[in-house]
Amino acid sequence: MTDYRLSRRSMLRGLGVSMALPWMESLPVWGDEPSGRKQASEPPVRLAVLFSGNGYHSTEWWAKGEGKGLKLGKVLGPLNDVREKVLFIRGLYNAEAQKGNIHSSQTGNLLSGAPLASGGEIRSGTSVDQVVAQRHGRSTKVPSLVLACEKAIASVHRNYSMLYSSHISWSSPTTPTPLELYPALAFDRLFKDEARRGDESVLDAVLSDAKDLRGKVSTTDRRKLDEYLDSVREVEQRIENAGKTGQLQGWRPTLEKPNIPRPPDGLPQDIAEHMRLMCDILVLAFQTDTTRVCTLKLNNDHSALRFPNLGVDYMIHHLLSHSLTSADWLKVNQFFVQQLAYIAKKLDAIDEGGRTALDNSMILMCSSMLTGAHDASQLPVVMVGRGGGKIRTGRALDYQGKPNRQMCRLYLSMLEKVGVRLDRFGDATERLGEV
Predict the structure, then answer these.
(1) Hey, where are the domains in the chain?
(2) What angle do CA 393, 399, 403 make, to 5 degrees?
(3) Helix extents (H) in 94-146
(4) Most exposed of 63, 142, 347, 383 (fewest Cβ within 10 Å)?
């Protein structure tokens, strides 16, 4: 065993670049000094929230059974390969979200349960992800990563700001956390320093440091380091090419040729590639402990995205959601859940010493209404990951018809798994004991 010492804060460094390292058996990466024989300390628990707007198919969002026998409805079918690490929860709701009964009033407090201001004022509540970031953010290079695949809507709908429909993460009751739509800029935030030139590869800058480290770790860790560097290079190359296809998705220009300049390189025009890049960046961020908190808004509530990649290009997402049982609506739902499945499988392939990165994560996916009919009497909720071994998965929980079914009870439980114990969050004063 090597005598080489590395704290969790150590990184591969190059000119204007710093890259945090994945867990390695040879090194105490997470920060605690080892006692006795050199053994890496306990990996952290990460929190991610994925959001897709406008709800899901009215008859195919369900789960039942347990363990390997957990059966998933067609919407959740992409999660079959990781179903033993799935926790499905039915029946939770936000009481405050039912007051306006429109998209904005149902989305702006999804992660806080707070009352929303209307009439031109913007006020919600600090979201659960930002509570964690404010408590633990100093432990990592990036306190939290807030990613999105559709631009915010700046308008008012039935007396509520559409900013509520565009933001699930709130740094304070009056401050929606800024969205990062550009994969290249999200990547830069993780790995590049201010002084770095933008046209240089991150890997090229740190190769010398990586070569030095490679000679000081175990054979298994050399392989892990090589795989990690390869994955970073792949994401770099895909980001470089992502803006070149020119397939505008969402709104359609009314002219044969656009009368506005082509969007800059770096903002993907293919929605499938955009989402996949953001998923890869989330995984890299967790794998390297660059952040432990991430939200990924796949689209807005009241979304204008279209999906030519699925052959569903005739109607925007919001309007399609009103066809509650159509085959195309199911196809789009599955596409969103595929992003969760992709993240889960990638994290589950990362060994962190007896558990996988997925075992050490809580990946929550939800929407602000059960279906496109604006039904917020219960919220669609599915979680993947075991929260550092603190969550029993492979289950379906049902709170329909039960008292005290506040969504914020789930958030209190999740906060506890990451070491943030509160007596109250939103409208909840008790944890969800089964989680």
Answers:
(1) 11-417
(2) 135
(3) 103-107, 128-136
(4) 142
Angstrom distance (rounded) from CA 22 to CA 3: 19
Listed in sequence order, the DSSP H helices in 102-201 are 103-107, 128-136, 163-166, 183-191
C-alpha–C-alpha distance, residues 191 and 21, integer Å: 11
Report H helices in 138-218: 163-166, 183-191, 202-214
Answer whether 0.90 is exceeded by the pTM. no
Q: Which has the closest alpha carbon to 10: 290, 294, 361, 280?
A: 290
Q: Indicate the class that CATH gives domain 11-417.
A: alpha beta
Cβ partners under 8 Å of residue 255, min gap 6: none
CB–CB of 293/144 below 8 Å? yes
User: At 12, phi and psi to the nearest 5?
Assistant: -75, 135
The secondary structure of 379-411 as a DSSP string is: --EEEES-TTTTS--SEEEE-TT-S--BHHHHH
Supply the pLDDT for residue 11: 66
Cα–Cα dist 56/63, whole Å: 14
Per-residue exposure over 120-143, b if at least 16 CB sit within 10 Å of its own CB, e if not: eebbbbbbbbbbbbbbbbeebbbb
pLDDT digits (tens, 9 = 90+) for 172-200: 999 999 999 998 888 888 887 754 555 66
